[in-house]
Amino acid sequence: MSAENGGSIVSILTENRVFPPPPEFAAKSHVSSLEQYESLWNRAKDDPEGFWGEMAQTLQWSKPWEKVLDWNPPFAKWFVGGELNASVNCVDRHAAGPNKDKAAIIWEGEPGEKRVLTYQDLLVEVSRFANVLKGLGVVKGDVVAIYMPMIPELVIAVLACARIGAPHTVVFGGFSAEALAGRIQDCQAKVLVTADGGFRRGKVVPLKENADGAAAVCPSLKAVVVAKRTGHDIAMTAGRDHWWHDLAAKASSDCPAESLDSEHPLYILYTSGSTGKPKGILHTTGGYLLGAALTTKWVFDLKDDDVYFCTADIGWVTGHSYLVYGPLANGATSVMYEGAPNWPDEGRFWKIIQEYKVSILYTAPTAIRAFMKWGEQFPKSYDLSSLRLLGSVGEPINPEAWMWYHRVIGGERCPIVDTWWQTETGSIMIAPMPGATPTIPGSATRPLPGIVPEVVTRDGKPVGVNEGGFLVIKQPWPSMLRTLYGDDERYKSTYWSEVPGCYFTGDGARRDEHGNFWIMGRVDDVLNVAGHRLSTMEVESALVSHPKVAEAAVVGKPDELRGQAISAFVTLETGQEASEALRQELRAHVVKEIGALARPDDIRFTESLPKTRSGKIMRRLLRDVAAGRESSGDTSTLEDLSVLAKLKEEDEV
Ligand code: WTA
Fold first, then answer.
1. Of all protein residues, whose CA lies closest to atom 5 belonging to ligand 1?
2. Which of 16, 63, 223, 641 is 20 to 30 Å apart from 530, CA to CA?
3. CA distance linking residue 210 with residue 189, whole number of Å
């Protein structure tokens, strides 16, 4: 088992600082003691259907369910027979109550513009855009692809899809035209919603150009809707492309929401697995919404007067669950920022927190490490006293970063919730309940009520205290993925066949004597680069699709800032010469195939790759070479030992 999290495991093993919930925080929180947490957890474990049935009463249903769970492993149906609508739960029910004039979204553009959408405003905009989609022929069940910058129209488009029962698939704006096309083709999206561009570090991200590149090879697309953001010149294809504002001006702002089956698909979100082809994670309406809503309330101890700031992009699952669905289902105020944390300078997030009096901040360890590197002077120049809770997500947080976050950002008063979960799990699985759970730097602590994880061996036997093993989940939970879009077999083999009878997370973990979980990183070929999931095979396929490349192997190497960096080993077709120019060409090729987030940090040219006798690339050895470590592992199955020695010599051309 490999654990690639930047070498923090050693320090994690010796970590013994414990931070109990501050008494004044605990006194006001939803779950305010360890005993209360434990009794909730035990109750949920012993009577999951009773527990989840009660929890689901917090959502607004248009038709009550008949049965809480229909479990036909590994296929689950939650709240069977029930009907609801996610946009009604996130918008209408707040717009109809005392919160109608409360800010739902406070948005800030990178250049500095501000926009506030109250729940009432959001209802108008969501309904109007739902009518726009209908006008373009979108009906319940049609997939809508969304490829947008972080602007309010993105939230509006997502909720408009939910309103009419059109599953959305949001593609992160950093993905290339090719990657966007692959996703649209896989789910046969009918409409693409995009923008003329977005701002990132003062530059325009050419979203429409990429969208055009994708649309050209996606015959399923009948229309492209373009929101105006940057105002620069773009090409519009007559008959296919429409400006958002033109269509919206003609659309009614009254759109009754569809009453949807609890299991109606809400969205598909593509994520990297251990093969080259991204997987379409399918989430459905009732269970997903319950998971997102409930965990937002529990883990962030959300109150009516909180101002909540999640820094994730909606292109990733964190943005789906904890910028859109979770906070809005709770009637919260969600702050949304378009651009880079260091634009125009490294104090941008702190300025936002000061200005809007943000009380809850949810960000990623890779960002925290960047803040540390930039220096304390930036956060110290702003008033961060409104903060009361801090969250972390995406990768294991190293104790040094945890302590810095605690001291410099949290002023030693804010509990930190280290939240472990995945695109597949839909919502947070292991995390402190901040009024109840003592926190420890580097540990995600305990499972939330209703979640039953365990650390096991490959054949499913529990390991001992503090022993490493595979992290699995033993009982179904409402926000679990239902399948991989269009591929039930891959769903079964990826998640339910590795360890008998359990959901296989792909992560390694250990559990300490107090019952705290310590996540040790992926055990498969999935990389975690700056909190973004990427598969080694995806990058390999991109490299091999270049005509000069014969073979490629990609591994992760520890990186202080981003957790992991991407290291590629490439063999060239006969007659091709290795050169710095070719290295640049290959880097650019990967960016074109996938996006800048997959750009290899280093590319080494080699005559051959180390393989076992059965032809499998020995990644473990390559990881050692990439990290500059002496190879410690057993090399007796290597087909050609000289290959390894050669790799080391050939370090750089
Ligand atoms: C990793 C992001 C340690 C883990 C929500 C998981 C974490 C993968 C944590 C999912 C954490 C996420 N501590 N590791 N708090 N949170 N991970 O699908 O390896 O983008 O399997 O979902 O990120 O990444 P994904």
1. 422
2. 16
3. 16
Site to probe by mutation for ligand 1, drawn from 313, 318, 395, 534 as the one with most ligand atoms within 8 Å of Cβ, is 395
pLDDT tens-digit readout, 22-68: 999 999 999 999 999 999 999 999 999 999 999 999 999 999 999 99
CA distances from 331 to 64, 122, 224 (A): 22, 12, 31
Report whether pLDDT(261) > 60.
yes
C-alpha–C-alpha distance, residues 307 and 14, integer Å: 36
Mean pLDDT of the chain, nearest integer: 94
DSSP string over 392-438: EESSPPPHHHHHHIIIIITTTTS-EEEEB--TTT-S--B---TTTPP
Gap from CA of 570 to ligand 1 centroid (Å): 29
ipTM of the complex: 1.00
Nearest CA to ligand 1 atom 24: 422
Instruction: Locate 88 and state its tokens.
Output: 């009604």
pLDDT in tens, 298-331: 999 999 999 999 999 999 999 999 999 999 999 9
pLDDT digits 0-9 by tens, 461-500: 999 999 999 999 999 999 999 999 999 999 999 999 999 8
Q: What is the rounded distance in angstroms from the CA atom of residue 106 to the CA atom of residue 317? A: 20
pLDDT at position 3, please? 41
Task: Return the sign of the alpha-carbon dihedral for residues 177, 178, 183, 185.
Answer: positive
Whether 31 contacts 43, CB under 8 Å = no
Beta bridge partners of 334: 105, 308
Where does ligand 1 bind, in terms of residues with CB under 6 Å?
Answer: 271, 316-318, 393-396, 418-423, 444, 505-507, 519, 522, 528, 533
Task: Evaluate whether 387 touches 409 at the Cβ level (below 8 Å).
Answer: yes
Count of CB atoms situated within 10 Å of the CB of 112: 9
Per domain, the residue ranges of the chain are 530-650
Query: What distance, in Å, lies between the first and last C-alpha atoms of the chain?
Result: 32
Q: Would you say the pTM of this structure is higher than 0.90?
A: yes
Say which CATH superfamily domain 530-650 falls into: ANL, C-terminal domain (3.30.300.30)
Whole-angstrom CA distances from 460 to 471, 475, 525 are 10, 14, 21
Residue of 647, 440, 623, 638 whose CA lies nearest to 5: 623
Residues forming beta bridges with residue 309, ordered by sequence position: 335, 361
Alpha carbons 356 and 295: distance in angstroms, whole number? 24
Residue matched to tokens 């009516």: 304
- Is the pLDDT at 636 greater than 70, yes or no? no
CA max distance for the chain: 73
